[in-house]
């Protein structure tokens, strides 16, 4: 029973922190907020064009809303349940490949 209660509390805490972060009020996803390192740029290059276009639209809309000092209507906010990690798995793969390549170059 304690495990279920703990899982519910953690889930509630995650949702609270997600909403507190504020990026969802601009319609952004978590992966839209990643700092663009070389690994992230390579991962973006590997994504299909329509996914990158959707990401660019969300970012441009968020910048425009920020300049206007406003947010989206509440029904258009990104919900915790709808937020999917579309870029993180690709970034992790790119990092893994880069580390493997660096190890190979170092050893051979």
For this entry, give a set of tags.
108 residues, Cytochrome Bc1 Complex, Chain F, transport, mainly alpha, 4 helices
Structure description:
- It holds the Pfam family UCR_14kD.
- It is found in: Mitochondrion inner membrane.
- With 108 residues, the chain is mainly alpha-helical.
- It has one domain: Cytochrome b-c1 complex subunit 7 (Cytochrome Bc1 Complex, Chain F).
- Helices cover 63% and strands 0% of the residues.
- The chain contains four helices and no strands.
- Helix 2 (38-46) packs across helix 4.
- The longest helix is centred in the N-terminal third of the chain and has 20 residues, at 2-21.
- The protein is flat, with a radius of gyration of 18 Å.
- The N and C termini lie far apart (54 Å).
- The model has no long low-confidence stretch (mean pLDDT 92).
Secondary structure layout plus pairing:
Elements: H1 2-21, H2 38-46, H3 49-67, H4 88-107
Helix pairs in contact: 2-4
Protein name: Cytochrome b-c1 complex subunit 7
Family: Belongs to the UQCRB/QCR7 family.
InterPro entries: QCR7, QCR7_sf
Radius of gyration: 18 Å
Bulk shape? flat
Proportion of residues in extended strands: under 5%
Largest sheet: none
**CATH architectural grouping:** Orthogonal Bundle
- Based on secondary structure, the structural category is mainly alpha
Helical segment count: 4
Family: Belongs to the UQCRB/QCR7 family.
Membrane topology: Peripheral membrane protein
Function: Component of the ubiquinol-cytochrome c oxidoreductase, a multisubunit transmembrane complex that is part of the mitochondrial electron transport chain which drives oxidative phosphorylation.
Protein name: Cytochrome b-c1 complex subunit 7
């Amino acid at each position: 029973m304690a495990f279920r209660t703990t899982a519910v509390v953690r889930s509630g805490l995650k949702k609270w922190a997600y909403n507190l972060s504020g990026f969802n009020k601009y319609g952004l996803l978590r992966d839209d907020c990643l700092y663009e390192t070389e690994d992230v740029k390579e991962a973006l290059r590997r994504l299909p064009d329509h996914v990158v276009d959707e990401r660019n639209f969300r970012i441009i809309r968020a910048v425009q809303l920020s300049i206007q000092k406003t947010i989206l209507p509440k029904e258009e906010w990104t919900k915790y349940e709808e937020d999917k990690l579309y870029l993180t798995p690709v970034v992790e793969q790119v990092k893994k490949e880069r580390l493997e390549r660096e190890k190979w170059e170092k050893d051979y």
